[in-house]
Amino acid sequence: MIQIKSFTFNPFSENTYLLYDETGEAVIVDPGCYGAEETSQLYGFIESHNLAPVRIINTHAHIDHVLGVAAVKAKYNIPFLLHIIDEPLLKAVRTYAPNYGFPAFDEPEIDGYLDEGSIVTFGNSLLKVIFVPGHAPGHIAFVSDEQRFVIGGDVLFRQSIGRTDLPGGDFDTLIGSIKNKLFTLPDDYTVYAGHMGPTTIGFEKKNNPFLK
């Protein structure tokens, strides 16, 4: 059974997720930790629970979701996977990171790509990849049908949606991703978002003002 541990990192209050199961194998989703204090929180939990991270998987490549990728990748010598369309967004981060107060940003190397229909495995568990662009052009989400949850990144928030005014963003595309991909999931699926707390598909269908 997959356990989900969330951490809130960096000034953007980004949610990093650590998923692990009874085997001790784990995947790290969107490591946004920056600096020794934040990375030590992640490492400390991993070590105290005797976990073995096997890969880093990102929903997208905006700065707040990639700040810790290089450090985590080096620490555990594991691959970093992303959608190929978001590679240019990752490459752009180092040019603007100092302007946001992150002069020590270390650009990670991408080791592989994920796309709609890809399956991410760890231990006895698996996650299905769905393509949900709009907030970012190569945005993906990770779905567990067995445990009825989505690690959704910055697509759908509790009574809100991801912003679309950043490079590569598009409002109509984002709304289409939510309605045609996320809202086709059953109402009881929990959505773990890239910011703020979790919500459910059913709650957002009824209460999200952007999706009436």
From TrEMBL:
GO molecular function ontology, one term from the record: metal ion binding
UniProt domain Metallo-beta-lactamase: residue ranges: 13-195
Tree of life domain: Bacteria
Pfam families per the UniProt record, alphabetical: Lactamase_B
Keywords: Hydrolase, Metal-binding, Zinc
Keyword presence, Hydrolase: yes
CDD domains in UniProt: metallo-hydrolase-like_MBL-fold
SUPFAM superfamilies referenced in this protein's UniProt entry, alphabetically: Metallo-hydrolase/oxidoreductase
Cofactor: Zn(2+)
Protein name: MBL fold metallo-hydrolase
